Amino acid sequence: MRVEFLDLAPVSAMRGSVRLPGSKSISNRILLLSALAAGETHIHDVLEADDTQRMLDALRALGVSIEATGEHALRVRGAGGAFPVKRADLFLGNAGTAFRPLTAALALCGGDYGLSGVPRMHERPIGDLVDALRGVGARIDYARAAGYPPLRIRPAAVSDAQSVSVRGNVSSQYLTALLLALPLLGRRMVVNIEGDLISKPYIEITLNTLQRFGVSVEREGWSRFVVPAAAYRSPGEIFVEGDASAASYFLAAGAISGLHAGGPVRVEGVGRASIQGDVRFADALLAMGAAVEMGDNWISVTAGAEARRAGKLKAIDADFNHIPDAAMTIAVAALFADGTSTLRNIGSWRVKETDRIAAMATELRKLGAQVETTGDSLRVTPPARLQPATIDTYDDHRMAMCFSLAALGGVAVRINDPACVAKTFPEYFDVFARIAER
Q1: Which helix or strand (DSSP H or E) is residue 61 part of?
Q2: Rounded to an integer, what distance in angstroms lies between the CA atom of residue 233 and that of residue 111?
Q3: What's the CATH superfamily of 5-20+244-437?
Q4: Which stretch of DSSP H or E encloses residue 100?
Q5: H or E element in which residue 415 lies
Q6: Less crowded by CB within 10 Å, the N or C end of the chain?
Q7: Does residue 319 carry a catalytic annotation?
Q8: CA distance 336 to 44
Q9: Secondary structure (DSSP) of 116-134
């Protein structure tokens, strides 16, 4: 039975070390490319959570052989460029990192497929990706509202297109999906970006993963990508990094807790050598007065000396387009700042698991903050003292995790539907409790 709520007592300090779960973004990219590649791939440290389970269920339904070989370890026998099963209906929940790339790959695989998800997934736009795929001969129909899932995919028509265009300012997952799927065409393809490309670090993850499977994409700035005529080859063995977005909650806890003799908090699994842009969350904490240490595979955070003397973090005014997921944690850390913080260029929040700008504003106000919003920004003024609150989570894992930090403000916090963290970090609240001091 799903737990309705979780009560968090006030937390006086947090300190300790946390081993991060595998990255969702990297896990699902590696799973898809392992399934499409020639050869057998042994994957280590893969995330075990709802989003990766959606991808695994879909790949198995498409005829890919996948078996567990140990804890967080899988062996995938690649299909060599085309899925064996040519007719399937796939339910992908609210997993954007599964839905968008699978849409593109299946559209070019020559089969008849239905793709659907939870009601919120059917509210998340996909029209730009569909339009781009139609430009290379894909046959995709909307089962309900135009521009949104669910989708019906039929065998692609013959097309000799050498290039494709896609808008870059709605979701970086559209470009990721194209880059992962276009090698299936077996010819050189150029992807042109219309407008500004958001969430660039996630594209860096995609390019890095492609290279590890034998496809080296040329990038001309952020406006043009050249995909070579190359087939996917298994790297044989591959490891998944820890989740840098999940690291943000614990790193922020170290900074906040350090204001009152807590901290440091150390995360293991990401660091200087990470391919994930969300490790730059540490830069935002530095700007707020945190003390940060970093190795190749770890990061440790507490409050800096000036912040400890003031008993507050510094307010921040910054562009967070490059780390939209981790930026949610900054919005909650702003409750512990010495003035008004402004998060800019976060319009992509509106098409995530929920409208995160609206949801964040509503829940921050419950804690006593003054909040102003625009279409792509959030402005947070902390109260003199936090108020106890019941936090609604909107079936959004990141809402649940980042608002757990409010308990560091000396107030009780009730988290409704805490099980939503199963999307990416099922053990989150157990780990939180292990390093928390009441």
Answers
A1: helix 50-61
A2: 22
A3: Enolpyruvate transferase domain (3.65.10.10)
A4: helix 96-107
A5: strand 413-416
A6: N
A7: no
A8: 38
A9: E--TTGGGS--HHHHHHHH
Distance CA(381)–CA(85), nearest Å, equals 54
Mean pLDDT by 10 residues, the chain (438 residues): 91 97 97 98 97 98 98 97 96 97 96 97 98 96 98 91 95 97 96 96 97 97 96 97 97 97 95 96 98 98 98 98 96 98 97 96 98 98 98 98 98 98 97 94
Considering the chain, tell me which residue range(s) the CATH 3.65.10.10 domain(s) occupy: 5-20+244-437, 24-227
Q: Find tokens 């996909």 and name the residue.
A: 126
Question: Which residue in the list 325, 392, 396, 417 is annotated as catalytic?
Answer: 325
Cβ contacts of residue 430 below 8 Å, gap of 6+?
A: none
Of the candidates 53, 75, 58, 78, the one whose C-alpha atom is nearest the C-alpha of residue 66 is 75
Q: Is 75 left (phi over 0), alpha (psi -120 to 50) or beta?
A: beta
Tokens matching residue 371: 């909040």
Can you tell me the distance from the alpha carbon of 359 to that of 30, in angstroms, rounded to the nearest whole number?
A: 31
Residue type, 12: S
Secondary structure class of 72 (helix, strand, coil): coil
Contact yes or no for 91/68 (Cβ under 8 A): no
